Amino acid sequence: MSAVDLAPQELRILVAVADEGGFSAAAARLGTTQSAVSHAVRGIEGKVGVVLFERGRFGARPTPAGAHAVAHARRVLRMLQTLVAETRGVGAAGAATGRVEGPLRIAAFRSAALYLLPPVLERLAARHPGIEASVTVVREVGPGTAGAVAEGRADLGIATFGTSAPIPPELVGDVLLEEPYALVHPAGHADPRSLPLVDWTENCSSYTRAWWAAQDWIPAATVRAEDDGAVLSMVSSGLGMAIMPALSLTRTPLGTGVTDLGPERPTRQVGYVTTPELAATAAVRALVRELRSSAKPQVGTG
């Protein structure tokens, strides 16, 4: 098969059409015309020999092949940014200056963004002020944070391992900590295990299912909330009990109590994922060093 050359601007067009959902909106974003975008997409499809977008009254949405191409396009464009940033970190004599700069996009589930990342990013900024870190909160449901990395929307994701949504095989990473689950309930309740169960969708993809199924005292959830913060609010109001991981319980509201579930308590693994090419970049390596040195979360009362 002959080589196919795609220019960076063609990759930007693919990403813009996918992000904006149509040629006209992509043209507005790129400062060009709808016809120019449409012509460019047809040219790209001709080069790769595959239809990349379905066209219709709804606009344009990626085909399965198109979604794959757009993910690669995002990742290639990101590496072009990295080429510039890391080249600036090399002195005239060819030796590394130690300067690390440029954007660093992080995807994290809510409790990791609230409690795990802030001290990590504070240390990262102190050591490498040229790094421009941004954090996007992504629900750990379905593709989750790992999906954001695989799609090229994030450079590194703080992810849960061993859930019903496996880490994409093309990513690399490692476990940072294993956090226990605990019973959270209204403070001072005489029999918290008799209360209704409050849960949220993200939790259902994370807990140790074998342990959960073996506990005959845990009823089916009768109250569901949007996220772990809402669960804690409901529990503190006396609406039920919940079984939650330690990160979510870093700061519990007044009116809640936390009870250890014993030596057989379930745990979940939290770690990071990135792409093989980004794993070798200075900014991601610097972030991983700070993540590894981060202390394990502590359960407490805020």
Quick structural summary:
The protein is 40% helix and 22% strand. The protein is an alpha/beta fold.
Q: Describe it for me?
A:
With 302 residues, this protein is α/β, with parallel strands linked by helices. The protein contains eleven helices and eleven strands. The strands form three sheets. Strands 3, 4, 5, 6, 9, 10 and 11 form a seven-stranded mixed beta sheet that branches. The chain has a two-stranded antiparallel ribbon with strand order 1-2. It has a two-stranded parallel sheet with strand order 7-8. Helix 1 packs across helix 4 (64-88), helix 2 packs across helix 3 (34-48) and helix 5 (110-127) crosses helix 11 (282-293). The model is unreliable at 297-302 (pLDDT under 50).
Computed structural class: alpha/beta
Using the alpha-carbon principal axes, give the shape: globular
Report on the biggest sheet: 7 strands, mixed
- Strand content range: 15-25%
Average predicted local confidence, pLDDT: 89
Order of helices and strands: HHHEEHEHEHEEEHHEHEEEHH
How many helices? The count is 11
Helicity range: 40-55%
Low-confidence stretches: 297-302
Q: Got a strand count? A: 11
Q: How many angstroms separate the termini? A: 61 Å
Overall radius of gyration: 23 Å
SSE topology:
Blueprint: H1 8-20, H2 23-30, H3 34-48, E1 53-56, E2 59-62, H4 64-88, E3 102-108, H5 110-127, E4 131-137, H6 144-150, E5 156-161, E6 172-186, E7 198-200, H7 201-204, H8 209-214, E8 223-225, H9 228-236, E9 242-245, E10 256-260, E11 267-274, H10 276-279, H11 282-293
Parallel strand pairs: 3-4, 3-5, 7-8
Antiparallel strand pairs: 1-2, 5-11, 6-9, 6-10, 6-11
